[in-house]
Amino acid sequence: MSGYALGTDAPEKDLLSRCVHCGFCLPTCPTYAVLGVEMDSPRGRIKLMQTVWDGRVEVASAGFALHIDQCLDCRACETACPSGVEYGKVVEAARAQLEVARHRGPAARLVRAFAFRVLLPRPSFLALFARVSVLAKRLGGATILRLVGARRLADLLALVPSTASSGALPATFPAIGARRGRVALFSGCVMRAAFADTNAATARVLARNGIEVVVPEEQTCCGALQAHAGARGDSRDLARRNIAALEALDVDAFIVNAAGCGAHLKGYGWLLKDDPAWSKRAEAFAARVKDASEALVSFGLVARPGTLRARAAYDDPCHLIHGQRISEQPRELLRAIPGLELVPLTEADMCCGSAGTYNVSQPELSRALLDRKIGHVLASGANMLITANPGCQMQLAAGVRAAGARVTVMHLMDVLDQAYEAAAG
Ligand code: SF4
Ligand code: SF4
Q: Span 57-75, mean pLDDT?
């Protein structure tokens, strides 16, 4: 197949032509930093996408697949680009085209369909999967897998957290004190299946600041992992389900505590732009999505957190800093905690190598980026490492464990919740 298949999911030529090949984005690109190869830089990948448009390279060619697959979709290049290239949109479209063109065996197709259509959209399945994975890890599953030569699965199991919390939250967390707002918590798929305690912490922190939180049961996975992996049709189906379930709620905002989900939910307008029945609804929905830190700073903290003694480093999730341009709000919240010393972290804005399913699909590159990140964490002298995305949290915790470092990895909302607990106790 030469050139892109026409239709909804081809990278838009106008977006590609915004690139003036200046190279300003190159120093910010993690894969270029590790590999030093032009075709693994944003500029090189854009050039490659243009040559496919012109019909000079086949979508299914090994070179195109290699360099597009090796991209983290971290969007650091978007932040750096002076010409406004919306790289995330074009690379996701390129991946969708790759999925149409490339040959996958029946087993690989089955695994993708199971993960994207069965596991992620069903919280009870995913919670069961998380519990079994945690148990397998505790029973030494990684060692057994390595012994039988299943290194990839062993690496995957190493990423699983030592504990997972799941279960439904109360339908409402009433505002404490005078009610200043009402929001709905987007509880996510991985968050609901493995980090339910963090969801509860998020709701408590908001409630302590006078914001009533409702947790609608009728919501599903946001579809971010599907879109990043080229399954945009599946992602659109989930987007329609979420919009239909949540749009009529009488709330000020939909609150998200997972950066990858937040960036994707804010992009629903783009995802459904070619669907006349849904495009306007999607845009209206996306305009109401807010990261938890963004909402807390915009409402303002009225409850004073208690003291937490820690030397903390904050690592920016890519889809918060680059996907949503949110970097100051989390730091502002952390600075509000007495006793918490916020230390600088070199390359805090560079990807840790988690990137959705990247640590599964590109384990060597992911490991190289994680080692680089953990080196900076150790050099910072921090004993606490804070992030705001479940994938980053699992990846960073695995890196800290592998390094044998005495660093606690936590979600921003858990840190705030602990500080409020300290104030109450
Ligand atoms: S993506 Fe932007 S920064 Fe990078 S080469 Fe193109 S115009 Fe320059
Ligand atoms: S999304 Fe990240 S990895 Fe991909 S080209 Fe841009 S900076 Fe590089």
A: 93
Enter the pTM of the model: 0.93
d(CA 242, CA 300): 28
Tokens of 46: 């854009």
For ligand 2, the distance from its centroid to the CA atom of residue 86, given in whole angstroms, is: 11
Band of the pLDDT at 5, cuts 50, 70, 90? low
Scanning 36-162, the segments in alpha helix (DSSP H) are: 42-53, 62-69, 76-80, 87-101, 106-113, 123-138, 141-147, 151-159
Collect all residues with Cβ–Cβ distance below 8 Å to 159 and sequence separation of at least 6.
359, 394, 395, 398
DSSP helix/strand/coil, 64: helix
The encoded tokens of residue 310 equal 């820690």
Residue carrying the six token digits 């150790």: 378
Q: Strands 211-214 and 172-173, how do they pair? A: antiparallel
CA dist., res. 351 & res. 72, Å (int): 8
The residue to mutate among 19, 39, 68, 75, having the most atoms of ligand 2 within 8 angstroms of its beta carbon, is 75
pLDDT higher than 60, residue 384: yes
Q: Is the CB of 31 under 6 A from ligand 2?
A: yes
238 pLDDT exceeds 80?
yes
Ligand that comes closest to the CA of residue 318: 2
Best CA proximity match to 123, nearest among 18, 196, 182: 196
- Determine whether the shortest distance from the Cβ of 281 to ligand 2 is under 6 A: no
For 46, other C-beta atoms within 10 Å of its C-beta total: 25
For residue 212, give the nearest of 171, 241, 244, 246 by alpha carbon.
171
Phi, psi angle pair for 361, to nearest 5°: -80, -30
**What CA–CA distance (Å, rounded) separates 53 from 3?**
5
